[in-house]
Amino acid sequence: MPSVLPVGDPVPEDGSLPESALAGVGTRPFGVYVHVPFCTVRCGYCDFNTYTASELGPGASRASYADTAIAEVRRARRVLGAADVPVSTVFVGGGTPTLLPPDDLGRILRAVDDELGLAPGAEVTTEANPDSVDAAALARLREVGFTRVSFGMQSAVPHVLATLDRTHDPRRVPDVVAWARAAGFERSAGGSLSLDLIYGTPGESVADWETTLDAALACDPDHVSAYSLIVEDGTALARRVKRGELPMPDEDDLADKYLLADERLAAAGLSWYEVSNWARDEDARCRHNLLYWTGGDWWGVGPGAHSHVGGVRWWNVKHPAAYADRLAADRSPAHAREVLGDEDRRVERVLLELRLRDGLPVDVLDAAGRAAVPGLVERGLVVEERARLVPTRTGRLLADALVRDLLP
Question: How would CATH label the architecture of 341-408?
Answer without folding.
Answer: Orthogonal Bundle (1.10)
